[in-house]
Write a structure and sequence with these properties.
By secondary structure, the chain is of the alpha/beta class. 46% of the residues lie in helices and 19% in strands.
Amino acid sequence: MRALLVVAHGSRRSVSNDEVRQLTNELRVAAGQEFAKVECAFLELAEPSIPDGISCCVSEGATEVVILPYFLSAGRHVAKDIPEIVASARDEHPGVTLRIAPYLGQAKALVASMLELSAK
């Protein structure tokens, strides 16, 4: 079973974390059969943590977890922190494929989305 784990930074503002959860709900519906499970996790300041998010997916039967960094640029969190956390999780979940997808800022559709937003 494939799972998608959307990883955001996390915020002290619960409303911001709820926005990520709402996006995750929308992705879950849109994913259809592509991902049997779609969840979110946070690097810091909110729950669940990334390791807990991965463990949740695995405990529900995921044999592959795609980690999607919900970040616009390749700062320290994308380049170092998330890969280190995922590497540790690989040790805890042998036999499960953990793959980090490109971060959101690399999406080609982002330019069109930004223009669409600015036209409103």
